[in-house]
Write a structure and sequence with these properties.
With 120 residues, the chain is mainly α. The chain has a domain of 70 residues: Helix Hairpins, CATH 1.10.287. Helices cover 80% and strands 0% of the residues. It is built from six helices and no strands. The longest helix has 21 residues. The mean pLDDT is 90.
Length: 120
């Protein structure tokens, strides 16, 4: 098993060997969108869970590429983002509101709007 930073290092090495390490973020984003389409097709086409997971990994690989081009390490950024998401979508509050019978989509939308109001 590898950790997030090791996965990022492998992706950077692979791109360097393939000669694509100098492409810009937009190029990597556009390639990621192609992989997202393939993931969507796999899910919509009732592909096996393994095939869906492999397509999701393709999307993840392009995410790694973009993060690397921005100069961040994935491990640290992942922790930072999860901490922000914990504040944005407080798990305890979500559970309490779900127990009150509110639909999850409504809860998350309300929390997102509150977050956006607080950060403006």
């Amino acid at each position: 098993m590898i950790n997030l930073n090791e996965a990022q290092a492998i992706q950077q090495w692979w791109e360097g060997k393939m000669g694509i390490d100098e492409r810009d973020k937009l190029d990597r984003f556009n390639r990621m969108l192609e992989e997202v389409d393939e993931l969507h097709e796999a899910i919509e086409g009732n592909a096996s869970c393994k095939d869906v997971a492999l397509e999701a990994v393709d999307v993840f690989i392009f995410c790694l590429s973009i993060i690397s081009r921005c100069g961040y390490d994935l491990g640290g950024l992942f922790v930072e983002k999860m901490e922000r998401n914990h504040y944005k979508y407080n798990v305890d509050e979500v559970q309490r509101l779900r127990e009150e019978g509110l639909p999850l989509d409504n809860i998350l939308q309300t929390m997102k709007e509150r977050w956006e109001d607080e950060t403006i």
